[in-house]
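User
Take a look at the entry that follows and flag anything odd:
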Amino acid sequence: MVAGRDTGGNAAGSSTVGNSVSGGTVEGSVVQAGSIGQVHIHPAPPPAPSPPTPLTPRQIRAPRPVFVNRQAEIAVLNQALESSVDRPVVVACTGLGGVGKTELVARWAHDQREHFPDGELYADLGAVRHRGGVDLGEVLGGFVRALGVREDSVPASMGERANLYRTVTAGRRLLVFLDGVEHAAEARALTPSSGLVVAAGRTRLEALVLEGARPVTVGPLGSGAAGDLVRMWLGEDRGSEQDLAELVRLCGGLPLALQAVGAQMITRSRMRMGRVVAELAERQRSLEPLGTREAGVQEAFESVYAHLPARTRDLYHLLGVHPGPLFTPDLARAAGLHGVDQALEDLLHAHLVDETADEDRYRCHDLVRLHARRRAYEAWPEDRREAVLRRIVDFYRDRAAAADREILGERFRLQPPPASAGALPAGRSAALEWLQAERADLLAVLHAAAERGWHEPVWQLCESLWPLYHARKHFADWIESHELGVEAAQWDGRADAEIRMRNQLARAHYEMGDYPRAQAQLDLARERLVLVQDPRLAGLLWESQGLLRLAQGEADRAAHYFTLALEANAGDPHGVVVQTYNLGQALLAAARHTQALQVLDSAAEAAREQGDTPMLMRLALVRARVLRATGDPAGALTGAQEAARLAAGLGQVAKEDQALTFVAELAAASGDADLQAATAARRQQLSRQAGVAPQAPRPHNS
């Protein structure tokens, strides 16, 4: 792929979305030479700091204090742990919704933490499942980042990410907990090179068992264990043994239902168990069509709901209206709710919502969401539900727009700045992480807005999601969202927005290597150019067209389109530098070396005037390649070393490694063993620093 500006082809964009790394300067030996024939190794600068210690993620939530009678299931997990000393072992954990699978694994992981010194990884596949599928490449990307791989070293493709995951997990003693698994292939793709995997789901994973996974079925609690659990919460004097047994029966032995009822009785210390049982029995009759066990859970929620304060009910109704799986107090306030903090505490105490690993985000079990949705539709009239949902959509639209501006600065955008975005973490990295954390909610909100014909926020939100999709390569989400964005722009009568949506959609197909689909989108976008006046929109398309032609080996045609993009960016200094850089790459590919040097030198002069070090680095490397092609290896070496030096100063490990790879090629061509050795040593150091080098196996007696 041709490196360039922010890959929406934006006239004032930043070229470092996927490659910028915060932190200090990377130091180390950069070898300089006056000529290939006589290489002079200059004294090395002070030694580089030691590579950072690999991260030790702890992503599995803390267990609840009370836990009973899962000895048989824990025994299976313990046996699997003993077998995972020198190979990966998988446990297939299945059971009904609300039966306590997540709590079981959280408790066991907490008790066995010393056996996982390299960390715990967690993924809720149900939260990121769309149209029945999961973007496993994104889950892998999240895992390797959690294990310390730098952002600019995470590859784009699923296959490359899988290879990197296997590399960085080799020799590590890890626990990987996959919740919401529906298909054996999901667990296979996310199994590390070593460690223990627990794949939990509601359906039996026979294929995993046939491949050697240890099966464990988590069933409802028996009457004795469930009774012990309730007594631990309530004591011995809140009801008879008969009432206790009936309570367990009505809740189906499911811990989720028992916890909700138990929390209610703890809060209302004078409530007798007999009264709760009577209420549950009455409500069960209206829920029989759901099935015995599901009715038991729903009636338990209904009993708790009946005693919630009004402000807490409003927050609960919001959970039923909100289309996404996660929520924050800020979202609730933006939706117009009051007393949010106390209402949230009430729902936490009632076990209707749970904390996540991120202290600012909360979620609820999908069975709770089902009940909340039913209650919201009964309690709130349609106009209020729609008004609250519109506030939710606007909240995400404005927050995403603010994050986009934090990441990419003042790039060319069609939408105005957000009127109010609330508090958003400062800095590019923090803003990107906010978009990442809200990814599932953002896509769910897009669908909800599209279903209601709220066209403007749909395409605006898509425009703001560009830095997330470009940096993290969520190709499935990227395509799904922008298909909605194209349709919304058409309905909104915005030809400019349609051009932008189709261009960004084309770039998704381009990055996936699906050039025919990319070309089809660009062709459709070009048809709309007659309806717009802003030349920057044409510039977007010409840049994308040039990249597409260059990728297909049509260098002269690419140069033509980059020339058009350069003309369209007249008046935008950064855009001119970027398009001149792209043009230089096309001229190099077309073997038009004299022209390439002229345009690259012109771009470098402009970049120096602008203080644009990232573009100077890229220009230096491309110029070095041109010089090698013209038979000037000494000049090529000087340029490649300059690119490596600039990349080191920016802390861009991947770009420095790219430049040093070229240095190594030049050294090999000249037979310079000293330069090859020095370059190889620095590249190994960079590999460790980037977190992509294999880890030394830990001793198993630690």
Summary: The beta strands are 89-94, 120-124, 129-130, 133-134, 175-179, 196-201, 214-217, 326-327, 354-355, 362-363. The CA atoms of residues 36 and 670 lie 6 Å apart. The chain is about 60% helix and 5% strand. Residues 1-52, 286-293 have pLDDT under 50 and may be disordered.
